[in-house]
Specification:
The protein is α+β, with helices and mostly antiparallel strands and 182 residues long. The chain has one domain (3-162): NADH Oxidase, CATH 3.40.109. The protein contains seven helices and four strands, in the order ααβααβαβααβ. It has helices at residues 3-9, 23-33, 53-70, 74-81, 106-123, 135-139, 141-147; strands at 45-50, 93-99, 127-130, 154-162. A four-stranded antiparallel sheet has the order 1-2-4-3. The longest helix is centred in the middle third of the chain and has 18 residues, at 53-70. The termini are far apart. The mean pLDDT is 97. The structure holds flavin mononucleotide. Flavin mononucleotide is lined by residues 11-12, 14, 129-133, 171.
Length: 182
């Protein structure tokens, strides 16, 4: 797939087949992720890959409960309170991109790696979605402990990956507002 086609076709996928994603495929996505640029070439990204169903469900459950404690949006609260709402949409894999430690550019660096990973997934016919709702929990000592993440790591981007159950319609983009200075 051409790069521009992947950029146009990538969607936030929220409905997955249960098919497991093999280690080699996920490893390929991670190798695409680390091609991202990083400030002063620090390459701060670290990866945690969760494919164990029981662990995915546990993290989804605990992240939902964690988020509910602080969520002020009534709409999001209603989603989170729905017992049928799986915060990872039952995806078969979660790739958490974390920085090795807190640093001024860690969010930019890890977000660029995340975008590479999501585009590479699209190129492979896979769906992905950044799950911001899980971030607070994954950054907490409790979340890090469940995943066995070193306390110094700073989780930035939880990305679910899986085989899409169907097509995801695009969200139309607003026309870019540009101030041209020629
Ligand atoms: C930082 C970030 C956090 C996001 N968090 C969530 C989330 O928690 N749950 C979810 O379903 N989608 C989440 N998304 C996906 C966006 O809702 C999605 O990208 C947006 O609606 C545009 O749709 P598209 O990606 O298909 O173009 C997140 C995206 C980003 C970049």
């Amino acid at each position: 797939m051409e790069l521009l086609e992947a950029i146009r076709r990538r969607r936030a996928v929220r409905d997955y087949l249960p098919d497991a994603i093999d280690e080699a495929t996920l490893d390929g996505l991670i190798h695409a992720a680390v091609q991202a640029p990083s400030a002063v070439d620090s390459q701060p990204w670290r990866f945690v890959v969760v494919r164990q169903r029981a662990m995915l469900d546990r993290v989804a459950r605990e992240a939902k409960a964690w988020r509910l404690r602080s969520e002020s949006s009534a709409e999001l609260r209603a989603h989170l309170e729905n017992p049928g709402f799986h915060i990872f949409y039952n995806a078969p894999a979660l790739v958490l991109i974390a920085a090795e430690h807190e640093s001024p550019w860690m969010v930019e660096d890890c977000a660029l790696a995340a975008q590479n990973l999501m585009l590479a997934a699209c190129d492979q016919g896979l769906g992905s979605c950044w799950i911001g709702l899980a971030q607070d929990y994954l950054r907490s000592p409790a979340g890090k402990e469940v995943l066995g993440i070193p306390p110094a790591w700073a989780p930035v981007a939880p990305i679910i990956v899986g085989r899409p159950r169907g097509a995801t319609p695009p969200h139309p983009r607003r026309e870019p507002q540009v101030r041209w200075i020629d």
